[in-house]
Amino acid sequence: MSSKLSDLLRKKCLQFGRDFKAGRIEAMTNAFYHPDAVMEGRDMPAEVGRLAISRIFEEARDVYSALIIELEDVTQIGDVAFANFTNRNTIIAGGIDVHRGLMIWTLVGDDWLVIRDFFFAEGAPLLDPVALFPVRAKATTHTRSPRK
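RE: above sequence
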């Protein structure tokens, strides 16, 4: 795997976090996800396409002030790349949700886009970023509205 691709995908993850924090959800999803991307998590139905994924992140802005994606080693096989990741999502009310998962990227033209994003919340206690004391917040404290 080339370090050039790894660097590119990490830069895309950094921009994703900047766009989320700035509220540029549509631009964020368009630059990061394939038009037919699938996102799913534990206890979450699969959401298909940029519009559905964009809605997830619009709802997430009610709960999180920031999202940080940390990619692990990236593996490339032809026009497909994949990497495990850790998300550290800053909760507006305090604390951090930690999610782990797998992203599968595909080359579209000269750009790499996520085609599959699967994640789950960590079961361990979360850390308050200010006091660094365990908090018992769960990733499922925000009820998602039904999809149409």
